[in-house]
Each structure stands twice: as structure tokens, then as C-alpha cells.
Amino acid sequence: MKEHYYVALDIGSTSVKAVVGEKFHDGVNVIGTGQTFTEGISKGMIRDFELARNAIKDTIKKAKISSGIEIDEVFLKMPITDTDFRTGEEELRFGGQSTEINGEHIEELLETIREKEMHSDKEVITVFPNYFKVDDLHEVADPKEMMATQSLSVNAGLILINRSLLMNAVKCVEDAGLTVLDVYSDAVNYQHVLSESEVELGGVVIDIGADLTQFGYYERGALKYAGSLPVGGNHITNDLSEAFNTPFEVAEKVKHQYGHAFFDLASDEDIVKLPQRDGEPDIEVTPKDLADIIELRLEEMLLDVFTELQEAGITRVSGGFVVTGGTVNLLGVKELLQDLVSEKIRIHIPKQMGARKPEYSSAISTISSGIMFDELLEYVTINNY
Ligand code: ATP
Ligand code: MG
Predict the structure, then answer these.
(1) Is this complex scored with an ipTM above 0.85?
(2) What is the pTM of this model?
(3) Alpha carbon of 334 to those of 51, 74, 121, 295, 339: distances in Å?
């Protein structure tokens, strides 16, 4: 059997990440990863083209070495910024002729929906089926191999993103010598962070990165709502830097080493020395002092997410909240959240060896999207058992 690998690329605000993986049972087996910290990206957007392109090249080089695989094609993920959501319907008619539904029928339907959605400033990045109907009967998730005589129809979700944002991300990846096979919005990717029961019951994924806090709500297996707020770990570091008059770089290091998101549990015994920005003598603080600042900002960010969800009419989250992204490396995030909501809370850290960092969740779930669409459209049906 020919080996088939998926490479996902995540151009994040602090680092570019790549994950090389393959389908394994119902999940993703990770073969290798690459990560490069860069100043070329901020707020999920390319700020310095050359820096970003070099970071992409370096990341792919690292992923090649760590996986032992040649990489020239990638799946690119886009953040949920400047993003619109629509619904579309389309139908294929068979005029009484018995037809076995295959991937090509599904692709034709989804492509027609994509082509009908034309805008000057926005581009469709992902079209995903909510449900199909064969001969106008009941709803099915995947109609392949079913027989139809009259029609196959689909109700699909569309995700559109700012065209310039997309074009420049794709150009940057192509200029790094890569081919972009497809682009998936994190709004579709995050469903793969949820377990089967969470995505059925209705679960929220929150990805707290550096400049962005992104979230999605999924219910009965489908995306219901997604959004993002322009805040993240960098704001926490900034607050620490301001509160204790210490350089950003110091605040960032200290946050990693002693940071705690839940004041009540943070230690007040360790002593942390903080150099001062104006050359004054170092000051001494405890992790509890740091937690005081960290908790305040993180709580505000989470409350803003809850407010937006509530405004969108999402008031009961039976499947619970799943939190991931680099900022959940902080201790105490679960305890803080549990203090704010009564729903079940889970911190998501990928379990795959070599990728056990919450900041890899977006890239790994991009691979899951790649596998999902390949199977839906019958591009390849590979199982590396
Ligand atoms: P974004 O998603 O916002 O575009 P990104 O994808 O680059 O950015 P991530 O890699 O998910 O973001 O997370 C980076 C953030 O996580 C940074 O703010 C960083 O300070 C924080 N972070 C990483 N490791 C730790 C740690 N051990 N303790 C505390 N914070 C951490
Ligand atoms: Mg990110």
C-alpha cells in the first residue's frame, strides 16, 4: 500500500508550526513536527513577508528532518479572523435513472455551492456538508454507495475569509517553495479536537494562542458558531511587564517558568527576581503576585468568549468546554475555568508522541480535516493500520 502523509501548516502569531501525520484508525498518527518562532506574523496575519517566508521554510526543513519525509505539499490552516459564515443548498437531478452516489457527485454539489458564492473582498475557503438528502427522504451524513433515482441534495456550510489575508498567506507558502493542497478554517478544524460525544452533545473549543483567542461551538456533529477575539498570551505577558516594570522578554520567560492562572493555588513561597526597565534595582515577587495579574487577564478573555457565545444564543453547552492553544501551558487554567462555569472542562493536549503541546492542536486538527474531506470526496482511501 502506498504511504500517504498529510502535512499541516499553521502560521501562528508567535510561531509557525508544521505537523506531518497519517490517518490511523479514527485519528491522526504524528510522524514529525517543526516549529519556528518568528516576528513575521502578528494577530494571525503576515506582517513581514520575508521573515514569515523564512520561518515557513525553516519549519518545513525541521519537519522534514523529524519525519524523514520529503515535503512539497501542505494543507494550510487559516485563523477565524475576518471570517463570514453562510449556508448554501444545491441539488443534483437524476431524472429517474438509478444512480449510485459517489465522491464525484458530492464534489460537484460542493463545488457548485462554492462557485455561486462570489464576492469582491471575501473568498470561500471551506464548504462542508451539514447533511445530504437522497431522493428527498431523510437526512444522511454521507450518501456514498446509496442509490438515488430522482435527486441528491446537500445543505452545506460555507466559510469565507478576507481575500487579501488568504492570498498573502497562500503566496507566502508558495514562495517558500510549497504547494497548497487545500485551505481549512480553524472553524472546521476544531471539531476534531472534540470527542465523538462532545461534538454530538454540543461542545465549545477555545484555542488561546498569543494574539488570538479563537472558539467554535459544535453540536450534533456540525459547526454552529465560531469566532475569535484579538487577545491572547501576549496580552498576559504585556500585563506582567507593565505591572512589574520589567522587559517583555523577562515577563515572557517568567510567565513560562512560574506562571499560574489560578491565584488561590499559586505558590507564595518561591521568590522571583525581576529586573526593572529603568535600571532600578531588581524587585522580588512571588508566583502568587504573578498569578494575580495573569488570572485577571485570562478571566477577562474567557468572560468575553462566554459573552459572545451567549449573544449568539448558545446558553447550554452540554458537551462542555475544551481549552487548548499555547496559553493553556499555564498551570491552573482548568481550575480558573471551573470557577467561572458549571459545565465540564477539559484541557486538550495532543497525545501523540513528539506533539504533546497544546499549541499543536490547530495543526493536528487541520490534518483531521484533510482526512475528512479526502474520505468524503473519495480522493484517496488510505488506512495505515
Ligand atoms: P495565535 O494563535 O494567537 O495566532 P500562536 O498560534 O503562535 O498564535 P500558540 O503557539 O498557540 O500561539 O501559543 C503561544 C502563546 O502561548 C504565547 O503567548 C506564549 O507565551 C504562550 N505559552 C507557551 N508556552 C507557555 C508556557 N509554558 N507557559 C505559559 N504560556 C506559554
Ligand atoms: Mg494559533
Answers:
(1) yes
(2) 0.96
(3) 35, 33, 39, 12, 9
